Amino acid sequence: MSQADTVSRILDAAEVLFAERGFTETSLRTITSTAGVNLAAVNYHFGSKKELIQAVFERFLTPFTCALEAELDRRLALGQPLGVEELIECLYRVGLGSLGLEGKDPQRFMRLLGLAYTQFQGHLRRFIVSRYGDTYRRFAGLLAEALPGLDPETFYWRLYFMLGATIFTLSSHDAIEAILQEDFGADSTLSQTLERLVPAASAMLKVENH
Q: How confident is the model over 134-191, as pLDDT tens digits?
């Protein structure tokens, strides 16, 4: 087995197990057993469990942020300001497209992202901020520009409300679709669900204070 194959098998196993069981509940021995490699391979290629967690996120976030930057450049080059709905639609479409092209499961990544908040991983937040913070700040800045007059603290909360709704909807999509089928006899693909989510997510950001 080549080193590249070994790394891929470790990352594939870690990605699935972390999403299913969580970071703290998944041991390196469980990952190596699933991947069919020895523990020394993880230490050699990643150094520690923390760095393995970071590498799992890197496989998702690098293609996503590169694609998002390129799409924002393309749209801004047209010389027209981007509204809230356009920015949210861009975020969803790029996320679904970039992860799909990389053979990644968007729902699994959303589960991992949700765990990053519910199972506090300080090292992971620092890693994401240092590696992908520029893209986040650019996107958040464009959203803030599309919401003139909104104070920074209110914008912060609304942004995280929107992200929370997005993470829940995508990470739980299979269960939500099953309920939809049972209650209404209807289906909804992930793409169709995101189309429905755009106006709802945008409204969370744009709602007027009373």
A: 999 999 999 999 999 899 999 999 999 999 999 999 999 999 999 999 999 999 998 9
Short-list 108, 16, 17, 3, CA closest to 46: 3
Contacts of 12 (CB under 8 A, 6+ apart): 35
Assess contact for 150 and 94: CB atoms under 8 A: no
- The position carrying tokens 């945008």 is 202
Predicted TM-score (pTM) above 0.70: yes
**Rounded CA gap, 1 and 171, in Å?**
33
**Cβ pair 169, 193 in contact under 8 A:** yes
d(CA 208, CA 7): 49
Do 142 and 152 meet the contact criterion of CB atoms below 8 Å apart? no
Instruction: State pLDDT tens for residues 117-144.
Output: 877 778 898 999 999 999 999 999 999 9
